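Q: My labmate handed me this sequence with no annotations at all. I'd like to see what the chain might look like in three dimensions before we decide whether it's worth expressing. Could you predict it?
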Amino acid sequence: MAIIRHKEQRVGVFIDVQNLYYSAKHLYNHKVNFREILRTAVSGRKLIRSIAYVVRTKTGEEKPFFDALVASGIETKERELQEFYGGAKKADWDVGIVVDMIRLKEALDVIVLVSGDGDFTDVIEYLKYHGKQVEVMSFGKSTSRKIKESADDYFDLDQEPDKYLMKSRL
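A: Here is what I predict for the chain of 170 residues:
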């Protein structure tokens, strides 16, 4: 089925930063070019909101990265890294991303999820049921088959890694 894109579509972009960061790190040993990903996600349509879900550490070393996201036109939502007894760490944004997608769906025609996490399949189906066009962008080599199949359109960043990765290595 061909996807319809036109300049009047209202687009929301939801970026699972941890998912993309680790995919790019493991596949290419490079950082992600989020500015270029946003440009491709919007594709000349009306951007309503773009949100990057990020994790803040105690050291604050990631602040320049957060500032660069904001300078690129991407709002950030921060969550502190949780450290558990025994050294385990966790910073999961999945529920927060889902809540925002559902909360903002009435203001959007198209929802672009930038993540390869198969846990989002249910919300994709829900949004499609409610008449939303759902597009997914991620590095295909590390993406769940379920999420690729459930989206109305899937954009594989692996097809042009030089475009979606920063020039400097990690």
